[in-house]
Amino acid sequence: MAHLLTVSGSLRTGSSNSALLSAVACAAPYGVVVTPYTELGSLPAFSPDAEESEALAPAAVTRWRAALSAADAVLFSSPEYAHGIPGAFKNALDWVVGSGELVEKRVGLLSPSAMSEFAHPQIVEVLRTMSAVVVPRATLVIDLPRRGLDVDRLVGDPAVVPVLRGVISALLGTESAT
To answer: Is the pTM of this model over 0.90?
Structure first.
């Protein structure tokens, strides 16, 4: 069994990023367990003092680190706010810079809007700086409608599901050599 953790960089209820990651779970083949990380909004503001000591790390941070450690790979999806990375998402990444849960971890990034021209490359840069293995074929901008996107619509779209399956295969290193 392969374990894929999905992380939406959006705290919005009904987020297209969260819907896209839910569709990934639906598209996952047998043998791939997809677990959404749902506590992004629970993480406290990053503190270097607490980051340096596991004993001082808040419980939500300990759970975040454990979720990352347990995963074989991580798939992120994030919106762009004011030409940048959403604060809650960047905060989550800051909490694992020093502890290293993303070091050598295979990661991908989906952006559900072609308008995400600034945040997408910024996130990739942050992940590479953290020594994550950014998988190019699992790091895509997929131009989807900005509002009203839901899982059923995505899973029912014959153009979307093969892309999502390709992302999963690339991320988990199960692509066929064709």
So the answer is: yes
